Amino acid sequence: MKKLNWPGVFVFSAAALFFVLSMMACGQTPSLDVEQLWSQEDVLRTGELVNSMGGLLVTRQVTLHMKPPFYKGIMPLVYETASKEMGGGGFGSSLSIPAMHDFGGWRNLFIYKDVQSLALRMPAGAVAVDNKSNNIIAECKVKQLLMGDKQLSGFEIAEIHYSQDGRRAIFTSTFVVDFPRGFKTKEKETMGKKEKDYFFIWPSGLGGF
């Protein structure tokens, strides 16, 4: 486990996202007729919101032996998480807010809308960023919470995948993440061609942190 200063890490990521989102907005026509789910302001606002709460960014290496249904890689699944750690979790415990999942080839940066979503550890969505080019290659947004027996049973999430240069939308779908495992379990309303899955784990579950 390693502790890092949150501002430095996020400023780098936000600057890269700012560049790519600006490039996407400057007359680039996607191959699918879709509206971008997140703006550069949404991404930067998340950084400002999290920074305002203090604490440290802590990274962990996670080894997951239970295979997520939409994961097609080598098992066990090994990846790195980053979470914002601060006091106030109750009974002397700390509050751990998931900030990033890094799968080697790309990283998912989670977007929060307000302090309540941070406290509940429930991001409103995410952007997937290629680790080599820093291009946004996918994004997703929670559409609704799913309830079963008056309890949270999962999330319905819309997603858009982009080409590797980040300029064309090539795939869209709505998928379901179960709770409390945090695994993507179902995909519907698909359009276009999917090259890979980016959001097969959601931070509410086993590998969330």
Q: What does it look like?
A:
With 209 residues, the protein is α+β, with helices and mostly antiparallel strands. It has one domain (2-192). Helix content is 18%, strand content 44%. It has helices at 6-25, 40-51, 115-119, and strands at 2-4, 56-64, 77-90, 93-102, 106-111, 125-130, 136-148, 151-162, 169-178, 184-192. A hairpin with a 5-residue loop joins strand 9 and strand 10 (184-192). Helix 1 (6-25) packs antiparallel against helix 2. It starts with a strand and ends in a 17-residue tail after the last strand.
Question: What descriptors fit this protein?
Answer:
alpha+beta; 18% helix; 209 residues; 3 helices
SSE layout and pairings?
Elements: E1 2-4, H1 6-25, H2 40-51, E2 56-64, E3 77-90, E4 93-102, E5 106-111, H3 115-119, E6 125-130, E7 136-148, E8 151-162, E9 169-178, E10 184-192
Antiparallel strand pairs: 1-2, 2-3, 3-4, 4-5, 5-6, 6-7, 7-8, 8-9, 9-10
